[in-house]
Specification:
The protein is an alpha+beta fold. It has helices at residues 43-52, 74-79, 89-104, 121-138, 142-156, 172-178, 247-253, 258-274, 281-284, 317-335, 359-368; strands spanning 6-18, 30-33, 36-41, 68-71, 117-120, 194-196, 199-201, 206-214, 228-246, 292-298, 340-345, 354-356. Helix 4 packs antiparallel against helix 5 (142-156) and helix 8 (258-274) packs antiparallel against helix 11.
């Protein structure tokens, strides 16, 4: 096989009576496709559950992984955490506004910024160290603190990248996988090597309005009716999901560490197959696993197999897999791109040119791919 520039991961996952991802009205997210409305799970929702999963294959459990935190309030909740309570309030406020301006391009005088910023542990440690040094040098004097903060701001404003120079994972493992955009300093941006599509049902949406009550356990016999009456939406569906990993981009973001890239791909394969979006856990138990997963490694531009479901399929894994295989065979005949494939399936359909195996087999295949590439120099 040629050097595998891209890893493509396709999966089908079934859910029943769930509300996996809601819009601003509290209803299931939807997508019109092929003349039919489909239930949808956003890429943001999927990525968040994969990166935060407490699981034997959690990304955080990988040796060499660095933490990262996405927040609108990193200053108060991370940098000042645990030590700033003893700082003079005037000095603290001067420093607080200075840090907000560096991170968000905003002084923090009134409401919090609308933009969230992702910072890695190394960047937070740097800013915490700098903040403590400024406090110590100011010695509780407001005027001195203002002068020091002004000088520090001139050196650091629009230069977030300088705070993590030489760090292997400046944005933590989260930034290395899913990227980072910093409007206050574009040089600190990190290009995402993991691309995640919105998952959607292979069939027309299946939804109903669920009327429910909460009974009052202490109500007297003569009391009638319910203590609480509410309504929510429940959906069922077989979802098609698609993930692409730019392998050279991933290795570059991991500082050229090929072994770490392999571990990341191994665990990510497990997480995609086994971790469910965790909405309404107590009332719907929306736990499922992929009933089908196809991995493809190749050197040509990736392509989704969503077109297999433009005409809605039946909500049954076997028929959905058959539609996907037919479309894949047509693509092979037309383009002959020659991807190497591994498949795990609960259906019996044969996938064109694919070697069948368990989830563990697929994860090992993914893990082996970075070794086939020469690690590029770290950026």
């Amino acid at each position: 096989m040629s050097d595998p520039r891209f890893l493509q991961i396709h999966f089908l996952a079934p859910y029943t009576a769930a509300l996996l991802n809601r819009d601003d009205a509290g209803l299931a997210k939807r997508l019109p496709y092929g003349g039919a409305l489909r239930t949808r799970v956003s890429s943001q929702c999927l990525k968040r559950h994969w990166r935060l999963a407490e699981d034997p294959h959690a990304l955080s459990a990988i040796d060499g992984a660095e933490d990262a935190f996405r927040s609108r309030d990193i200053v108060d909740k991370a940098i000042f955490e645990g030590w700033a309570n003893q700082v003079d309030e005037d000095v603290k406020e001067i420093l607080r506004r200075t840090l907000f301006e560096v991170l968000y391009g905003y002084t923090g005088k009134e409401k919090k910024p609308s933009q969230t910023v992702l910072l890695g542990a190394v960047e937070i440690a740097y800013l915490t160290k700098e903040a403590k040094a400024l406090v110590a040098e100011a010695g509780g004097d407001k005027k001195t603190a203002k002068e020091l903060a002004s000088a520090w701001l001139k050196e650091h404003k629009a230069n977030l990248k300088a705070m993590s120079e030489g760090a292997k994972l400046p944005g933590g493992l989260t930034g290395a996988l899913f990227g980072r955009m910093v409007t206050s300093d574009p040089r600190a941006n990190i290009e995402a090597p993991v691309h995640v599509a919105h998952a959607f049902t292979v069939h027309a949406e299946e939804a109903e309005s669920d009327y429910f009550i909460a009974a009052d356990d202490l109500a007297r016999e003569e009391d009638t009716g319910a203590d609480t009456i509410q309504e929510t939406e429940l959906t069922s569906g077989l979802f098609y999901g698609y993930v692409v990993v730019d392998l050279p981009g991933l290795i570059k973001n991991l500082g050229g560490d090929v072994a770490l890239a392999g571990e990341v791909l191994h665990n990510l394969t497990y997480l995609i197959a086994e971790v469910s979006p965790g909405a309404k856990l107590g009332s719907t138990a929306p736990y499922s696993r992929a009933s089908f997963m196809l991995l493809e490694a190749g050197d040509r531009q990736p392509r989704s197999l969503a077109e297999a479901f433009r005409s809605p399929s039946k909500a049954e894994t076997g028929q959905a897999v058959a539609a996907l295989c037919d479309h894949l065979a047509a693509l092979d005949a037309a383009y002959a791109t020659g991807e190497t494939r591994r498949v795990m399936s609960l259906a019996n359909s044969d996938v064109p040119e694919a070697e069948r195996g368990s989830l563990a087999d697929l994860a090992q295949f993914a893990k082996s791919l970075p070794e086939r590439l020469k690690a590029p120099e770290a950026a």
